[in-house]
Structures are given as structure tokens and as C-alpha cells.
Design brief:
mainly alpha; two-stranded antiparallel ribbon; 11 helices; 2 strands; elongated; RNaseH-like_sf
Length: 255
């Protein structure tokens, strides 16, 4: 409304002079948005607010840690912008979106120097190493890229596993050994004449097996954790709460 009446009230917003002579008037109405202009504003809001700002909100929490969200969040933003890069609707913004992806890639590469992001992701029971294998590639992807002529290709799943193994090995030097599981005494141990049944021997075997696994160290514990597929987790699971409630005893070397 202001722009529609400003010319009559105040005259042109700008007067261009050349050699003391007026050569051009720029009216206020020159800055009035047409429908196409508003559509571009909406497109910009989608690219910046809907994509980038929504990702930023992943890290706004007063109730739980969010470090593990780092890698998935950056990749989610990359995916959203890469999709727009090849969409005709956003062809006008192609160069700008590409510059945004280049900047994003610059910071994405920094994850290689910060193993804590990989560790936090692996410690989240919803992601573990499976996410890294799917997103970054494992031995099959490495073999395919090598066959395609890339001699420097990397098995990122194996690289991430090494990060976890090296960290656990280092921290195991300072951790207390796990408390051994006390075997169930047999009838013979108690001095009773009753002979053990097949089921008694079966139970003893299970206890002995559990004791060996419990004291096998961080290697066996890590393998067990990575293979376990819990049904009570999602991408929004509070990682601290999940570990504190019932899983620190099961994975004592993760403490």
C-alpha cells in the first residue's frame, strides 16, 4: 500500500543525474513485487528456511545430547539441495545452490578429522555402523569403484570400524575388568547325592558360555553390540537414556 501511493506523496525514490541533467527517475513502484517475485521469495524460503533451518533445529535441545545428529543432518541437507539442483523449478537458483553445496562439502570433509562424530553415531543404537556402510560405502562399493578406475577408493565402513576399535582399545587400558558371573553350583558341589539332570548340565553350559562372553573383553562386546538389532529404538531415541536404563550392564566396556 505504501509503495502504491509513495510516488504521488514523495516523488520518485531516486533521481539519476548526468552532467547536471536529469536522465532518469526511478519510481517507488519499480520495487513493487509482482506475483512472480513473490514466488521467488517463496522458493528462497523453501531453500533456506525449510531445508537449512529445519536441519538446524535438530541441534536445539535442552533435554538430550545431539552430537550424533551431526553426520545425518549434513547428509540430509545435502540430499535436499542436490534434489533441487536438478529440478526445473529451481533452475534460477542453480548456481547459488551449488555454492551452498560446495560450502557444505567443505565442512562435511571435516568429519574425517573428528572421530567423535563417528563414535557418537555408532553409539546410537538406531544407526551404529550400518548407517555408515549404507551412506558411505563398504567393501563392495570400494571394489566397484576400484574396478571403475579409482585406485584411491576407501572402504568407509572399515575405516569407521577402525575408529571405534582404536578408541575402545585405548579406553580399555583405564577401565576396570568386568565382574565375573558367579557359576551356579551343581548338586555335587553342594555335597548332595542327587545326580545332575540333562537340563542341569544345559543350564551350566549356558552360564559358562555367558561368563566367557562377559569376560571376553571389548572385542567380543563390540561385535555383539554391532550385530544386535534392538526393536525399541528410533532415530529420535535419547541415546543417553537408552544406555543408562538397561544397557550399560550389558556392555560394560562401553562405559
Amino acid at each position: 500500500m505504501f509503495i502504491g501511493t509513495a510516488d504521488a506523496l514523495f516523488g520518485p525514490i531516486t533521481t539519476i543525474l548526468r552532467q547536471g541533467r536529469t536522465v532518469k527517475y526511478i519510481p517507488w513502484t519499480a520495487f513493487k513485487f509482482a506475483l512472480a517475485d513473490w514466488e521467488r521469495v517463496n522458493d528462497t524460503c523453501t531453500i533456506i528456511a525449510q531445508d537449512a533451518n529445519s536441519i538446524q533445529q535438530y541441534f536445539s535441545s535442552e533435554q538430550q545430547t545431539t552430537l550424533w545428529r551431526g553426520i545425518p543432518a549434513i547428509e540430509e541437507l545435502q540430499t535436499a539441495w542436490e534434489a533441487k539442483l536438478t529440478t526445473s523449478k529451481y533452475i534460477l537458483y542453480k548456481d547459488t545452490i551449488q555454492k551452498g553445496l560446495d560450502k557444505l562439502g567443505k565442512y562435511y570433509q571435516k568429519f574425517d578429522d573428528k572421530p567423535v562424530y563417528v563414535l557418537a553415531l555408532v553409539l546410537h543404537p538406531y544407526y551404529k555402523l550400518t548407517y555408515i556402510k549404507m551412506q558411505w560405502g563398504g567393501p563392495e562399493e570400494q571394489a566397484n569403484k576400484y574396478a571403475a578406475g579409482n585406485p584411491n577408493t576407501v572402504d568407509w565402513h572399515d575405516e569407521a570400524l577402525k575408529v571405534v576399535e582404536n578408541t575402545m582399545e585405548e579406553y580399555s587400558k583405564y577401565s576396570s575388568p568386568p565382574t565375573a558371573i558367579t557359576p551356579i553350583p551343581s548338586y555335587m558341589d553342594l555335597g548332595a547325592p542327587t545326580v545332575e539332570s540333562d537340563y542341569d548340565r544345559h543350564c551350566r553350559t549356558l552360564v559358562d558360555q555367558a561368563s566367557r562372553e562377559h569376560n571376553a573383553g571389548w572385542c567380543a562386546e563390540l561385535r555383539h553390540y554391532l550385530k544386535d538389532i534392538p526393536g525399541d529404538v528410533s532415530r529420535d531415541t535419547d541415546i543417553i537414556e537408552w544406555w543408562l536404563v538397561s544397557h550399560l550392564d550389558a556392555y560394560c566396556n562401553f562405559r
